[in-house]
Automatic annotation (TrEMBL):
Name of protein: dTDP-4-amino-4,6-dideoxygalactose transaminase
Source taxonomy: Bacteria, Pseudomonadati, Bacteroidota, Cytophagia, Cytophagales
GO molecular function, one term: pyridoxal phosphate binding
One Pfam family of this chain: DegT_DnrJ_EryC1
InterPro entries cross-referenced by the UniProt entry: DegT/StrS_aminotransferase (IPR000653), PyrdxlP-dep_Trfase (IPR015424), PyrdxlP-dep_Trfase_major (IPR015421), PyrdxlP-dep_Trfase_small (IPR015422)
Top-rank taxon: Bacteria
Species this protein is from: Algoriphagus antarcticus
Amino acid sequence: MASQIPLSFPVFNGNENFYTQQAISSGHIATSGQFIDKFESKLSKRLHTHETVALNSGTSALHLGMVLLGIGLGDEVICQSFTFCASANPIVYLGATPIFVDSEKDTWNICPEILEDTILSRISKGKKPKAIVIVHLFGMPAKMKEILEISAKYQIPVLEDAAEAIGSKYQSKECGTFGTIGIFSFNGNKIITAGGGGALISNDMAIIQRAKLLSTQAKEDRPFYHHLEIGYNYKMNNLSAAVGLAQLEQLDFFIKGRRLVNQRYRTLLNDFPGIEFQPESNKSISNYWLTCILVDKEKTGFSNDQLKTALMKKGVESRFLWKPLHMQPVFTMMPYYGGSLAERLFEEGLCLPSSADLTLQAQEMIVEVIHEELSKTFK
Ligand SMILES: *Cc1c(COP(=O)(O)O)cnc(C)c1O
């Protein structure tokens, strides 16, 4: 049975139908067409300093980004452990090794101190990491100032996985624009969707030119098919771009909606013992793609798991936070640096329904379920 209140549901109130009709009427629904160009230039304009290459997924954007940073066989790449598998999988596609790093409590993203310790440890073992993959989890900006200082000090480029963080800001600057390369995802449940899609951004025109070439099978500009290197079929299609453009036009509206949802949860659960929210500092503005809480079982009397089940019984979908990658069976043989923070976030965390158009009534009902759980435990 589909949940009455899903975790995150797209809102199509804009030009989605109009643009897709136009794309179909034009006859161009594949990897060339006006909506791809429009989508790229609209996103570039929003990011001010950066150019965009529209791709067919966030994962392909990460893979291509790593290719462009020269990552290859036998290299080591540092990656935030507390993230979705797609942040690290492309490291393995390239025959390189992910080195996982724990989170810090202020943003739940990569811990700068442990990051520096990790770099020093890897250098002492004989290999300097080739790149640092950082993530702005659930839309919350990572500690970019500290991370960029470390990146500059050791001359290791940052690949910024902003798949969940389009429109989020750190010190008034758009997430995605801090690293040598940044990526976004427009998958079905992200804050804006293109059905499926991604983007690679950079302010280095050489990188953008190469991303364009490599994402279209490295087909050289000749009258016949001519290839000087191995490329990929990673370009976004015009039909997806039509949906993506319509969604991008509404991004600020969606962020406003999701931030309001977050604010209401905070108000409704204010003073609730043992429930903590993902912190937002005064340097950051999260797009609040998902509102996440931690449930301290000692204080609430119930676990995140019990709460998830109670919500499900009322038709409310919730989801555990990402299981840290160093705990994943496929990655357990990879090096990990840090303590148990990411593990605790996973063990106590829950993502609450966060759609941009979630009503106050629905949120009051969700909070009522939480209160019922509490009263059950103390009966
Ligand atoms: C969704 C996501 C990706 C992958 O994007 P796709 O478009 O689904 O391939 C990568 N990293 C993070 C953190 C994500 O949430």
